[in-house]
Amino acid sequence: MLDRPHPTPEAPTLDPFALAKALSGAHFIDGRYVPARSGRTFPVVNPATGIEIGRAAEGDGADVDTAVAAAARAQKEWAKMPARKRGALVHACSAALKAHVEELGRLIALETGKALRTESRVEANVVADIFEFYGGLGSELKGESVPFAPNVLSVTVREPLGVVGAIIPWNVPMLLMALKVAPALVAGNTVVVKSAEEAPLAVLRICEILNRVLPPGVFNMVSGFGPECGAPLVAHPEVKKVTFTGSVETGKIVYKAAAEKLIPVTLELGGKSPMIVFADCDFEKTVAGALTSMRFTRQGQSCTAASRIYVERPIFEKFVAAMKQAVDGMVMGDPLDEATDIGTIISEGQFAKVKSYIEEGTRTPGAVAHVCSAMPKDPALKKGLFIQPVIFTGLTKESRLVKEEIFGPVTVIQPFDDAEAVLAEANDSEYGLAASLWTNNLKVGLDLAHRLEAGLVQINQNLVVQANLSYGGVKSSGLGKEASLEAMLEHFTHKKTIMVNMA
Ligand code: NAI
Ligand code: MG
User: Fold this and answer.
1) Does the pTM of the predicted model rise above 0.85?
2) How many domains are there within the chain?
3) Residue 247 Cα, ligand 1 centroid: separation in angstroms?
4) Domain containing 191 — which CATH number?
5) Domain for residue 180, yes or no?
6) Which are the contacts of 197, defined by CB distance < 8 A and separation ≥ 6?
C-alpha cells in the first residue's frame, strides 16, 4: 500500500493547476514519492499559455538504479502470486482509475494541450478500460502439452521476463503507458516507466493511484530526459525487456542498446498512414470518418493519423471542399474549455518542426494550402502553441510532406484513377502502421486490405487503438504488437519447456 504522507491529495482533484504543483519534483519508486538523487528538477509547461505549471524530477542513472533495484526486489514475490490474483489487482487498478477519470483528463489536457472533451477525457477512460481488459487475462497465461513420447510428459509454461523498462512519449502518454504496464504486470513482471519529458505529471499521478492497489516496487516511475534517464534504463543489467513508443530515430538507438544485452524489445515508432477513398463510398460517413482519421483533435500528433488521403478522381474536388468545411467547423481554443475541439502542439520544438513542413508545402510550386479554422482570440492564449490545420492538395509523391511523419494538423489529399496505382503509392512508404479504405465494394476493399503493408487496416472506419485488437506496425513503424492477449503472451513472457521422464 502507498506509503503516506505525500504531497498529493488522495481524493480526485479537479483543479489541474493545484494537482500539477502538488505532483512536482518527484519520481515514484518503491511505493513512495522520492526526489531525484541529484536534487534537480525541470519545468513542465502549459503549451496553451507558455506558463510553467509544475516541475518534474530530473532523473539520471542513480535514480534508475534505485527504481530498478526496487522493481527487481518486488518481482520475486509478484511472480509467485497466482496469475489470477495479479489479474484481480490489475482489475482493481481499473476501478481506482475510473474514480479519477475527470481528474486525469484535466491534468493531461493542461500538460499536453489536448482538448479535454475530444481527447483528454477520452484517453483517461481508455486507460481504465485497458487495465480492466488485462485484469481479466491472468488465467490465460497458459502453456501447452507436447506429444513427445509415451512415457515423457512434455509441457510448456509461461514465465515472466523480470523487470520491464518502458519508455513512453508525450502524445497519448497515459494510454501508451497502460498498453505496456497492464500486460507486463499481469504476466508477472514488474515495471519501471521513464515518462516523456514534455508530459510527466499525469502518468506520475496514475503511478501513485495504482500504488494504492499494488505492492510497493511493482510499478515505478522516473522522469527525465532521453539520453540521461532513458538510456540508463535500457542499459541496466537488471532490465530484461524494453518496450518503447516514440520516434524511429530513438527507437533504433534503443534497439541497438538492447541488442548489447540480448534482451527482447517492442517498438512502436509512428507512421504515415494512408486513407484510400473510392468514389462509391458513403460520402457523408467518409467525410466524418476522415475528420476523425486525421486526428486533428489531437493536432495530428498521432502515429495512426491519416496523413495521406487518396481520393478517387470523380469525387476529389467535392471531397476536398467537404473536408475544408468540416475542419472549419472545429473550434480551436483553451484545451480545458468544453467547447474546444482542437488544442495545442506539445512543445516549441514540435511547433517549429510542424511549421517548417507547412512552409515547405506552401512554397512548393503547384501546391495549394487550404488553411482551416480560426485561431483562438483569448489574449491569455496568445503565447499558446496553436497551429491552424492545413489540407494540402497539388503535392506530388516526392514531397517530404507526403513521405515524412509531420505529427501536426496537416493532411495531404491526392487524387487517384486506378486501384493498383493507389495501392502502389500507399505502400511506397518507409512506414507501415495503419491504413483505411472507404468503399462499398468489399471485394475491392478486402483485396486491397490484404495487400496493404500495414499492421492494421480498417474498412469504412478508422478507430484508434482498442483493447483486445493487436496493434503494431511493419517496416519502420516498429516491432511487435500491443493491446491484445497475444501481445501479453508474446512480449511479456517466455515459454519454458519442462520434460518429465516417467519411464
Ligand atoms: P523521441 O522518440 O525522442 O522520445 C520518445 C521517448 O524516448 C521520450 O520519453 C524520450 O525521453 C525517450 N528518449 C529519447 N532519447 C532516448 C535515448 N537515447 N534512450 C532512451 N530513451 C530516449 O520522440 P520526440 O523527440 O519526442 O518526437 C520526435 C518525433 O517522433 C515526433 O515528431 C513524431 O514524428 C515521432 N513520435 C512518434 C510517436 C508515436 O506515437 N509513435 C510519439 C512521439 C513522437
Ligand atoms: Mg527526440
Assistant:
1) yes
2) 2
3) 5
4) 3.40.605.10
5) yes
6) 42, 56, 170, 223, 224, 225, 226
